[in-house]
Write a structure and sequence with these properties.
- It is built from twelve helices and no strands.
- By secondary structure, the protein is mostly helical.
- The protein has a single domain, classed as MetI-like fold (Orthogonal Bundle).
- α1 crosses α12 and α9 runs antiparallel to α12.
- It is a multi-pass membrane protein.
- It comes from Chromobacterium sinusclupearum.
Length: 266
């Protein structure tokens, strides 16, 4: 009994220490962001930030690129993971290794490679105009999000009987496009949403690619404000944190709803 009580006490101490390590800096940042007015606490820093056209433009720009990144990533990852699972299972370790490379290769190396290949002097000058640079930035974001999006989709595919569903759809006369659209995508809805929310969180806070490609994204805006002001950066940090955790919370909600729906069916 003493051993069990000691283990439980140790677990609670570890939880409290971990929570304190995580929450205390956040609380201190939030408290500092409320001190913009000398007479007391106020939300003035948040009002200034939210009314700033730079914040509105940069956040809208990053949100739009995040949605485009999610769309491109899904169209790339889902058919690939489906085909690997169905026809080429021996290549799965190789594909998993490739999708892990963005975690190993720094983003700054990636963007300098992009500038070398697709700069104004490259064979395909994406950076010659703004829309081309935006497209190049989306491709970079897809690469950064690939480990998370691929694993979400691959886990979702592992949870269903891909082969049986495909054979049943083929027996009813469905082609590959219809199988993906009507069978695979609906069964991967939760996995795709999980990967999408993670991708959104990554794109919103990304700095290196957007900065070196000179695009007006939210990450460079955070750095610019942090270098020139005092209280607004703290407010922006809290806002960015809330956006990220909102995405994580939505991911958990959709995952839980999916699990409850599956339990009800059984």
């Amino acid at each position: 009994m003493k051993t069990k009580a000691t283990s439980r006490l140790g677990a609670w101490i570890a939880i409290l220490l971990g929570s304190g390590y995580f929450l205390l800096p956040l609380i201190a940042t939030f408290e500092f962001s409320l001190k913009m007015r000398r007479e007391g606490y106020s939300l003035e820093a948040y009002k200034v930030v939210l009314a700033d056209p730079g914040f509105q433009h940069s956040f809208a720009y990053s949100a739009a690129l995040a949605l485009l990144t999610i769309l491109v990533g899904i169209l790339l990852v889902v058919p690939t993971a489906f085909w690997i699972q169905l026809k080429l299972p021996r290549l799965r370790p190789l594909i998993e290794f490739i999708t892990l490379l963005p975690l190993v290769i720094p983003a700054i190396v990636l963007v300098f490679g992009y500038l070398r290949l697709y700069g104004s002097g490259g064979w395909l000058p994406f950076t010659g105009n703004e829309r081309g640079t935006d497209l190049l930035l989306v491709f970079g974001y897809v690469t950064l999000a690939l480990p998370y999006l691929y694993r979400s989709v691959d886990t979702g595919l592992s949870a269903i009987d891909v082969r049986s569903l495909t054979e049943a759809a083929q027996s009813l006369g469905s082609g590959w496009f219809d199988i993906l659209r009507l069978v695979i995508f609906p069964n991967l809805k939760t996995a795709i949403l999980s990967g999408a929310f993670l991708t959104f969180a990554i794109v919103i806070g990304e700095f290196t690619l957007a900065s070196l490609l000179a695009r007006p994204a939210f990450g460079p805006y955070l750095q610019l404000i942090g270098a020139n002001r005092a209280y607004e950066p703290a407010a922006l940090a809290i806002i960015a944190f809330l956006v990220t955790w909102a995405a994580m919370g939505l991911m958990q909600v959709f995952s839980r709803n999916r699990a409850e729906l599956g339990a009800d069916k059984h």
